[in-house]
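quick one, two chains, predict together pls
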Amino acid sequence: MLQSQLFTKTRKEAPKDEVAKNASLLIRASFVDKLHAGVYTYLPLGFLVLKNIEKIIREEMNAIGGQELLLPALHPKENWEKTGRWESMDDLYKLTDGSGKEYALGATHEEVIVPLAKQFVSSYKDLPFSAYQIQDKFRAELRAKSGILRGREFIMKDLYSFHRNEEDLNSFYEEVRGAYTRIFKRCGIGNETHYTFADGGSFSDYSHEFQTVTEAGEDIIHICKGCKTAINEEVIAEQKDCPECDGKSLETRKAIEVGNIFPLKTKYSDPFELTYKDEAGKEQPVLMGCYGIGLGRLMGAIVEVCNDENGIIWPDEVAPFEYHLIAISGGDGEAMKQAQEFYEELKQKGHTVLFDDRDTGAGEKFKDADLLGVPKRIVMSAKTLEEGKVELKRRDEEDSQLVAREDLLG
RNA sequence: CGGGACGUGGUGUAACGGCUAACAUUCUCGGUUUGGGACCGAGCGAUUCCGGGUUCGAAUCCCGGCGUCCCGACCA
């Protein structure tokens, strides 16, 4: 992408009302824009990151057999009355059309996917299976906060699994745990993200969360120094020791919940009478699990973890581009000309490149490069031309090096 | 939903109740530059969030609303 063509611009200063680091940096670098409290636009650069996160999640979901679909966001009131959540879920957005018919904006999708599954599940032979979607969710948060970490409209991946017995549910549950662990690792926050025992809220008796340690977090977790498993503050009273190992030394940290997994069992299959016939022809309730990851929140958490005083430092796999190519103009314009050619070459070899072809000072380009946080920066100037090479610097490293162009094309 | 802070060009700030609302930045034009937001000159850009009130006079004081952020409560 040519930076001169990008319709968004970076800012020297963050809007004064953004305190959260993720919002401050993402807005300054023009990855996102705030429409109103808790509702953000993903601008072209932010959208690239979001799509990368989405790709990672999709690959890992597919790898454990999840079937992708897209459920509606506009739900009939009746489905929500059936589970009792039309009344009990107070952050549910409710709306009425011109004729007086009432709807809910999807805050979660058990109310839609369970009736859907009912249409196709009748025998034990139809089980197990799992389906997921990546879609906008709406929740009337009393207080949107922390930039994109807690919004009122947000993109979420929700996976639902359907099983004939608890054993099968539990084994799939562990598979999802593995997939989630890989997702957060690929997103560059594997070391900061902990598998955590938590309360089930209104969803189930208990649950597990994936908590990323950051000062911007709104939860308190107690991390086992032995096995890195953690316990959420809300259940620490019941569980004083690490349940995974003998480690009893817990470290207390603030963290943000980037993912969660719930054994729903029959909580939502019961109200919709989702059942199957077993080998004996006997009607049995379907057991369910549900598993969520907030994509925007994940992006925010990555920024909270991966930054320095100069800007964002995107992990390789989520970065909007692989290379940030900077041409330092001036002189006879040769550097700009050669950079233009190199840009085309890199693209041809399949690399993603942001090419700073703007006619502006070198300082501004470097500042913007640091702020945008593309993992690898290539500089071409009169200086590098003399050597017949280009300068390569990783965003997460101090030193740069001169390398041959061919070395970057491979 | 309780408490607090704030609301002035796109962004960040300033202005005692009193001149044409100031400065920086962004942006436009011209010129000089080109290895860390460079420099010079000339411009554009605001009904000071909205509505009332006090006053000869309100960005400034008072009341109400709306909005944003922070703390708390709440929360897949």
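Residues 364 and 370 of chain A are 10 Å apart (CA to CA).
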